[in-house]
Structures are given as C-alpha cells and as structure tokens.
Amino acid sequence: MKYFVLIPIVFPMIMAIIGTKVKFKSEKERNVFLYTTVILNLAVLIELFIQGEAFTIHLVKVSSFLDVYFKIDKLGILFSILASTLWIFTTSYSIEYMKHERDEKRFFIFFLATLGITVGIALSGNLFTMYIFYELLTLSTFPLVIHAESKDALYSGKKYLIYSFGGATLALLGMMILYSITNNLDFIPKGVVMGISYDKTLMLIAYMSMFIGFGVKAAMVPLHSWLPAAMVAPTPVSSLLHAVAVVKSGVFALIRVSYFLVGAQVIAEINGNKYISVLVVLTILMGSFLALHQDNLKKRLAYSTISQLGYMVLGIVLLNKEALTGAIMHLINHAVIKITLFFCVGAIYYKTHKKNIGDIEAIGKNMPITMWCFSIAAISLIGIPPTNAFVSKWYLALGGLDDKIIFPIIILLSAFLTAMYILPIVITAFFHIEENKDERNLDPSRKMLIPIITLTGIIVFLGLFPNVVLNFVKSIVAEVL
C-alpha cells in the first residue's frame, strides 16, 4: 500500500507515454482518454487525503542527500488537489480551444506529463526530490511555451530556460550549503535547523540562495521577465503557467524551504525575511505599475500575476500565523481567479481573434456570459467582498499589521492599482458604444463555457464560505508556527 502515493505522480506520465503510441480513431475517443486520466488522478488524491498521512516511501535512497522520498502531508495534499482540480477544467477548455492550434497531440502529451510532475512537487518528502521534479517541470512546460514554434515563441522559450535553470542552479547551491550544516533535507514542520549550531552568515547565504533560486518561478522582481514573454503560448498554457503549474510551484517551494526546512525562528535570527521583504515590495508594486501600461490582454494579466505573487511571498516572509494563512489562501484563491480570467481572454481571442483592450469595445454585448464571469473574477482580484480574494488579502493585511504598518498600506495601494488596470477592461467591454452593432452571440461552446462559469461560481462560493478551505489552511499553519 505504501506505493499508492506514487500513483497520482506516475499515472499521468504513463498515460502521456501511451498517448504518444496510440492512434485514436476519433476526437471523442481521445477526449475520453484525457478526461479519464485527469479525473482518476484527482480521485486517487482524494482517497489519499481521506486515508490521512500514513503514506511515505523512500523510492531510491543512496544517502541522506541522494534520497528520492515521497510523503503525504496537509500542505502537499492541498496543493496537489488544487492542481488536479484545475487540470480537469483546463482539459475541458483545451479540448475546444486547441482545435485552432497546431499539433494538438503533442500539446496534450506534455499537458498530462506536467500534471504528474506538479503532483510530484507537491508530494515530495524532501528538498532533493522536490528539486528533481522542479527541473522536470521546466523541461515538460518548455514544449508548451514554444508550442507555436514562431520566432517569438522560440525566443520566449529560450528565455524561460535560461531563467529557470539559472534559478535552479542558485537553489542547488543553497541546498548543498544547507545540507552541509544540517545533514538533513527532509520536510519537517518548523524545519530541520532547530537545535543545531550554525554560522549565521552561511545560513543566510543558504536561505537567500534557495529563496531567490526558487523565487524565479514565482516571478519575483527582478527575475520576472520570463513570465510576460511566455504569453506567446496558447491560452490554456498561459492559464497553467499563471494559475497552477509553474508560478504556484515556485510559491509552494518557498513555503517548503521557509517553514519545513529552515524554520521561521531561524529565518528571524538571520534576518533573512528583512532582505527578502525589499524584493517583495518591488514585486507587488512594479507588477501593478507595469500592468497599467499593457494594451495586450494576456500581458496585462501576466504583469498582474507578478504583483499578486508578491502578496503570497509577503505572507511567507512576515513569519506570523495570519500572514502565512493569507499567503496559502491567496495561493488557492488567485489560482482560481487567474485561470478564470485567462479562460475568458482566451475565449475572446478564440471567437474574435482580438488580443488588445482597445479592440474589445462593447464585446460584453456579444459575449455576455464570458464578460460577466470576467467581471466577477476582476472584482475578486481587487479584493472586494464577497469574493474569495478579499478573505486572503484580509489575512495578509492582519499579518502585515503584526509587523509594520507599511505592509498593509502597500496592500491597499496595490489593490487600488489593481482596480486601475483591471476595471478598464470591464468598462471597455460593457460601456463603450460600438458604431457598427453586431448582435451575434459570440460566447464559446459549452466545453469552454462550463469551466468558466463553474470557476466563477467557486470564486463567489469561497468568498461567502471561506471556512471550507480556511480551517484546513489554519491547521497547516498551526503545525509550522
């Protein structure tokens, strides 16, 4: 039974390999194959969650460093279920959207492989295992980024690789320094450094190296420019990059390093959080300011993601319960919001081939369902109740008040800037009068529309009933602080 933990990691990868060999007789047969994979994977993860934290396995152990180790814990199961759930919505959306893109088969092969790798990151029991899957994530998402194979796509892919491998090298340096101090890289609540004598300067170098290294995938300024460049990828890829697979894996890794390896007490002793907080403030504000200047819809959302990721990193480095609760809640809430926004923008492009804000005047009349869902998600992104992001930003603000008044002020300022860059899209869509009126309904088909509507419903539901997730998140925080 201990090998049960490997199923949600290995199963999508095996299905991806099978997908390369099988010649599907029809599109319907392929769709059944895709739905079966992602739904069964979620079902296995739910069963693991129900069974509790009994599953651990050292798959290959050469030494205490070279140890491929998996285990079930609350944080890992939360992230893996979030990813797997959103993968189901993306599958439905992609089946329709990818009809107007090339090489559908190749897309779905790497799409399934990336699911298994993301779950592998979530269920890693130590830093070495997570690092392996972190590198595999770069390799599996690279073909998705360059899917169009255009000059821009290939340039963006090269940039993505350079940033990702550069960050990974820095993270590896920190990992090796930490191992030289602790002789242990297992993920343990409150960290492995407690009770060990260490040189503060060396520990600071280790922590900063790992934080900045893993922070590349979390698009921390100034290591953020790969993310807007990756917008040349098809919209389902953008959704995964921004909502689940890559950037959230970066934030997840930062939580693991900070609270399950180094520990809050040690970080405070070496003042690691003080140095990081400077980059965090830059990330929050610079992402918002850059978003204001983007006319391209996807690029505006990309810079928005950078700013919102800054919120999560802020919650990590404040080192108190409210802030960390807000960070984990925002990891979940932002994932649902941003995937909804990207799905809506993708639907606009799929039906009208319009990419820029200036081109979508009065489109709300032609795509009412799509744009109403976009509007609700936009309101949530700002942090207006009763939507889900209000809850996470509330906890982040409370956590900021425990430290310095400047942090809640920055959160409020960023919320104002968020309104400035996201509401003009809604205003342009609904309140601009188009001279040549087109009465056609251009909302996409059910395969694309049902995920958009359902995710919008989740945004409101998690705003009205946050305790569904909040109590579980608080139990994670209680273990590490």
Automatic annotation (TrEMBL):
What PANTHER family does the record point to?
Answer: HYDROGENASE-4 COMPONENT F, NADH-UBIQUINONE_PLASTOQUINONE
Domain named NADH:quinone oxidoreductase/Mrp antiporter transmembrane: which ranges? 124-418
Record-stated family? Belongs to the CPA3 antiporters (TC 2.A.63) subunit A family.
Entry GO MF terms: NADH dehydrogenase (ubiquinone) activity; oxidoreductase activity
What species is given as this protein's source? Anaeromicrobium sediminis
Q: What is the membrane topology noted in the UniProt record heading this document?
A: Multi-pass membrane protein
Please tell me one Gene Ontology term that the record gives under cellular component.
plasma membrane
Q: Which GO terms describe its biological process?
A: ATP synthesis coupled electron transport
User: Where, by residue number, does the polypeptide cross the bilayer?
Assistant: 6-24, 31-50, 75-95, 107-125, 160-181, 201-220, 240-262, 274-292, 331-350, 362-385, 405-431, 452-473
Q: Where is the NADH-Ubiquinone oxidoreductase (complex I) chain 5 N-terminal domain?
A: 66-108
Q: What is this protein called?
A: Cation:proton antiporter
Q: Which InterPro entries match?
A: ComplexI-like_HydComp, NADH_UbQ_OxRdtase, ND/Mrp_TM, Proton_antipo_N
Record keywords, A-Z: Cell membrane, Membrane, Oxidoreductase, Transmembrane, Transmembrane helix
One Pfam family from the record: Proton_antipo_N
Location of this chain's protein in the cell: Cell membrane; Membrane
Q: Which domain of life is it from?
A: Bacteria
Coiled-coil regions, chain positions: none
